[in-house]
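Quick one, tokens below. Sequence please?
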């Protein structure tokens, strides 16, 4: 649930980045839910995002901060 303390600039944090200006892969963490996302973009304008999964198929999460 969103509250008055919600700041869209602070919700996601970079965990990992690979690639150059045109082709890039990022891993972002949603600090509200702890879910990690893989974001892939290409220089031709294509882009995709998907949650990272554990080997058993469940969504990969880490602990969240108490402020959320």
């Amino acid at each position: 649930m969103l509250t008055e303390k919600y700041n869209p600039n602070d919700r996601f944090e970079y965990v990992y980045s690979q690639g150059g200006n045109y082709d890039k892969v990022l891993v972002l963490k949603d600090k509200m839910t702890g879910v990690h996302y893989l974001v892939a973009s290409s220089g031709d304008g294509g882009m995709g995002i998907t949650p990272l999964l554990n080997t058993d198929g469940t969504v990969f999460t880490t602990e969240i901060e108490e402020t959320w």
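The chain has no helices and four strands. Residues 12-51 form one domain.
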